[in-house]
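Take a look at the protein record below and flag anything odd:
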Amino acid sequence: TAGLPQKHATLRDEVVKELRLNFKVPLLHSTFPAMRVLVAIRHPGAQITSILRLFEGGRLAELRAALDEFVETIEEQERFAKYRDTLEAIRKGEASRLVLWWLVNYEVLLEDLAAVGAAHKVVTNEALSVDPAGVVSDVFNFCGITVDEAVTDYVRHSTSGKSETTSAVDTVRDSAPYSEKAIRATTPDLLEEIRAV
């Protein structure tokens, strides 16, 4: 709406990206019954490896601090009873707690979306990296938004690794090899923890 005169500017759609909302689906759906939810899932090894790297750099302090409380929540909340048999395995370290955190976040989110009948679409990072234009088109169609040529151009340039523009926040990269490399970077120990959980 930025290019419109203020008297005509209206907010048609709102996008919120917030992991904390994964456990708030019933509340969100009762407030926004027409909501559409895009569930973007990244391979657990790639995501957890990335998070651990950020932890080492002093980032995501809130998530790091919440992991111990997360274990207590699994122990205390009846909703999470089915995860309790994994608690002994995950007490051994931060990576294993992150594996359970990844699993619970996505399972609960998908269960709740189905239970309330909310419109939702699951997109994996791996599918997005292999076919960025196709997945973006599917997402736009799911949201009822027309794919503009500028969007197609942006997706093509930003995911091919061949963009002519750069900036401090540029995410230009060849998506498929980048995603594959992130999965391959998962250590054998972490893969074993993922299997165990």
